[in-house]
Amino acid sequence: GRSLDNLFPKEFAQKGEEMLRIEHMNSAGVLHDVSFTAYAGEVLGFSGLVGAGRTETMRALFGADIRDSGDIYIKGKKVNIVRPADAIHNKIAFLTEDRKGEGLILDASVMNNLHLATIDRDRKGLLLDESKHRKVAEENVKTYRIKTPTLETPVGSLSGGNQQKVVIGKWVNTDADIYIFDEPTRGIDVGAKIEVYNVMNDLVKKGKAVLMVSSELPEILGMSDRVIVMRHGRIMAKIDRDSEHFNQEDIMKAAWGGTLE
Fold first, then answer.
1. CA distances from 21 to 78, 236, 261 (A)
2. C-alpha dihedral (57, 190, 219, 17), degrees to nearest 10
């Protein structure tokens, strides 16, 4: 019953300060001189064919994969990220492409999964603050409309869309400044996709930067403020939303190695 015109409910926010800058990031045989900047209040989309190096770029940025060289700057300050804990400390969140393998502990409860990324913060001495734990989880379930019988329900028993909402809640709870969404709507229904897009809208309106990797060109065009096109671990094009090249044909041309004039 939803109009096709409303499939991508893009909302525009005020572009703010530089949040992230990557300079000359390399990884042998995978990434080649990758450089880009992301700003507060924008969705920066990453497009390309399978094997283009988009996910590898995000994993190197997050410290999940080793990078051989390259510098990372957060709000203008150079930071050293060599493992995911460093990225989280620098307020980067990574909603991984592999929801079941890396984003969730399927046998654990909805409540415990919602606190995976904030477990240290929620401690009271050596113990978890159980009341705070439950209160935040209840708010997450309400805010993201997670359909679950109880907070104790194993997250693996939920639908794909509701599992993705748990992953989103887990990372939004960290109050990060930079959010990486890697294939955020893969394998979920249209209704759940809209809710994911609305979360992205809320984040950029709060002055966060969102990096979105997607293999779906309509999604890239529908939700991005700028698009970076990659091929074989290299950046082939950087396209602003108001550019004449902001269309499927030119993005695909760059993805295949063509030059945009």
1. 9, 17, 25
2. -70
Minimal CA–CA distance to 43: which of 190, 205, 163, 160? 205
Q: How many CB atoms lie within 10 A of CB 142?
A: 9
> 81-99: string of b/e by CB count within 10 Å (b at 16+)?
beeeeebbebbbbbbbbeb
Whether the CB-CB separation of 45 and 64 falls below 8 Å is answered with no
Higher pLDDT: 179 or 120? It is 179
For residue 180 the two structure tokens come to 């990486």
Round to whole Å and give the CA distance between 212 and 46. Answer: 6
The CA angle 164-166-168, to the nearest 5 degrees, is 70
Confidence of residue 124 (pLDDT cuts 50, 70, 90): low
Is 0.70 surpassed by the pTM of this model? yes
pLDDT digits (tens, 9 = 90+) for 50-83: 999 999 999 999 999 999 999 999 999 999 999 9
Question: For residue 237, what are the β-bridge partners?
Answer: 229
Task: Tell me if 105 sits within 8 A of 155, measured CB to CB.
Answer: yes
The residue whose two tokens read 């939303």 is 241
pLDDT of 195 strictly over 60: yes
